Fold these 2 entries.
Entry 1:
Amino acid sequence: MSSNRMEISELGEFGLIDRIAGNARRENASTIAGIGDDAAVVDCGGNDHVLLATDMLLEGIHFDLAYAPLRHVGYKAVAVNVSDIAAMNGKAEQVTVSIGLSNRFSVEAVDELYAGIKAACDNYGVDLVGGDTTSSRVGLVISVTAMGRAHKDKIAYRSGARKSDIICVTGDLGAAYLGLQVLEREKQVFLANPNMQPALDKYEYLVGRTLKPEARTDIVFEMAEKGVVPTSMIDVSDGLASELLHLSKQSGVGIRIFEDKVPIDNLTYDTALEFKLDPITCALNGGEDYELLFTISPSDHEKIRLHPDIHFIGYVHEDKNQNVMISKQGTVVPLTAQGWSHFSRQ
Ligand code: ADP
Ligand code: MG
């Protein structure tokens, strides 16, 4: 054994994935794209390529059963994978679901989990086609793999952004992060005094965004209807800044966004201030929004200009080392990734 030991936190999640990717060989011509995008791309013949995405949720890391109902956990586990397929401009069609269960869980609890999985499958038109079941010593583990498809000429990779492209993001950002802060606060209040009822009504939108995120399959559908193929795309799981840096790195381009264009819901804004947080920091680094971030050719702008849920937040330029946000005051702020870092938070 080597006496040298490197901590995973030294590499971080993305560094670790790069290291794994560096050692992955590609034997098969059918493997069109492997590690490094929202989903892998496989050529199975024909005009459509198959898309494959997988994501694992662990109790205590990704969800806390003190406030996340099992039904929502099941829904979210499917939705986040469907979101990764959507981020390739594809449609998910099948999922497999693997679960690890400790003896704390009853049959009724598993029924609840699968009620959520079924609700998501019904909502996104996806079939549950398999999985695996095992015992666990660390509470609930749920791993979902989604399979989907897209026309091979319409797949949106992270690497396709080009100079002058317009940067677009759907919905609004930061709400899921603040929903989590609200839930954490109410949990602490409850632990201190179990007679207290959680005061969540006012924050319903935020809590909903964190417990039951939706994949933006509607956007993929509407863009196709308007004949727009994004030049690059990614879903916002770690935070807008982190995802923008992925597009920059993989496309070899620079990003320039404008603070006043970043969509933040009023409740998100007010709740951030209540928590003494900067709303734009929550939007940039909060994560778990599962909105779509994409770039379009300027010639496509007119086709989606009036879409009520697509926001134009900046543009792509040549210098890949210049990834910045122009603040409301006009200052140039470098974009830095402070997304969820599972390895540094513990
Ligand atoms: P996303 O947030 O879109 O799910 P991730 O940041 O989790 O993407 O993963 C980025 C890429 O790295 C994906 O292509 C994913 O399949 C791949 N990846 C992540 N972890 C591993 C691993 N342990 N082994 C191989 N590939 C991995
Ligand atoms: Mg993704």
Entry 2:
Amino acid sequence: MTDCIFCKIAKGEIPTRKIYENERVIAFLDISPVNKGHALVIPRKHSEDLTSMDDENIAAVFTAAKKIAPALMKATGATGFNIGMNNRKSAGQLVFHSHVHIIPRFDDDGLKLWSGKELKNETAKELVEAILKEI
Ligand code: 5GP
Ligand code: ZN
């Protein structure tokens, strides 16, 4: 896609801090890290979000994340990592080229990515029924 910043990064048209690449994916440091070593893995082929990615590229992105995450931990001294993917505007997606965040985590780093609310029995029952109809 011509007007997509991550397509431009994938094609090498704009510079980035590349940390990994293969024939399907490229990974680079996030320009605005939420923690030290925050990186993104993207498929070279444009798609807007998870629902429009080829299954082969989903596998390739997560296989790359599995390889990259331990390297990020060793390089930064992190003791864990989060994998995240924002899908669509309401979920906070800002760049509409599918990408997975790898966020290194440090003991007591204070980063709070999400917090849960109580799941009531009746709500759970309705949800499970509704989801089962859609899958
Ligand atoms: P999301 O779409 O999942 O909300 O986040 C997009 C992410 O891409 C953000 O964390 C943002 O900092 C990062 N980002 C946006 N533009 C660039 C860029 O040009 N280069 C790099 N390395 N990261 C970018
Ligand atoms: Zn793109």
